[in-house]
Amino acid sequence: MKKFFVVLPALAAALMVISGCQRESGGASAGGDVSRGMDRRIVMGYSQIGAESEWRTACTNSVKAAAEEWNIELIFSDAQQKQENQMQAIRSFIRQKVDIIGFTPVVETGWDAILQEIKDAGIPVICVDRQVTLAAGKNQEDYITAFIGSNMQAEATKAAQWIVNYMKTTGNTKKKDDGSTDINVAILEGTTGSGAQVGRTEGWNAEIAKYPNYKTIFRQTGNFTRAEGQQVMEAWMKSPQANDIDVLLAQNDDMAIGAIDAINAAGKKPGTDIIIVSIDAVKGAFDAMLRKELNATIECNPLLGPQVMDTAVKILNNQPVTWWVESEESQFDWTNAEAAYPSRQY
Ligand code: AHR
Question: What pLDDT is attached to residue 52?
Answer without folding.
Answer: 98
